């Protein structure tokens, strides 16, 4: 069964999500931005969600995590929780 490890930043609106993505692309630290801006409790750990399999996260999240390139920030991804920036840090197919 496929497994992935990922980290994310969860915010309330798409504009903020895009601003944070631009900061990451300009070289700012993903984990630091997650600590400062993410509304998810995982933000305290730099957005780290640990390892999980398909179906353990919401569908929109799964779709990106199990198809996106590793170590490349994706998003904004909209879910019922808000807007996410996602980065797959490891995946085993």
Could you walk me through the main structural features you see in this protein, from its secondary elements to its overall organization?
The protein is of the alpha+beta class and 93 residues long. Helix content is 29%, strand content 33%. The chain has three helices and four strands, in the order βααβαββ. The model has no long low-confidence stretch (mean pLDDT 97).
Proportion in helices: 25-40%
Pattern of helices and strands: EHHEHEE
Oligomer kind: single chain
Number of strands: 4
Most strands sheet:
4 strands, antiparallel
> What are the low-pLDDT stretches, counting only 5+ consecutive residues below 50?
none
Strand order of the largest sheet: 2-1-4-3
Write a brief structural summary.
This protein has 93 residues and is α+β, with helices and mostly antiparallel strands.
Task: Give short descriptive properties of this protein.
93 residues; alpha+beta; 3 helices; 4 strands
Task: Write the topology of this structure.
Elements: E1 3-11, H1 14-25, H2 30-37, E2 48-52, H3 59-65, E3 74-79, E4 82-92
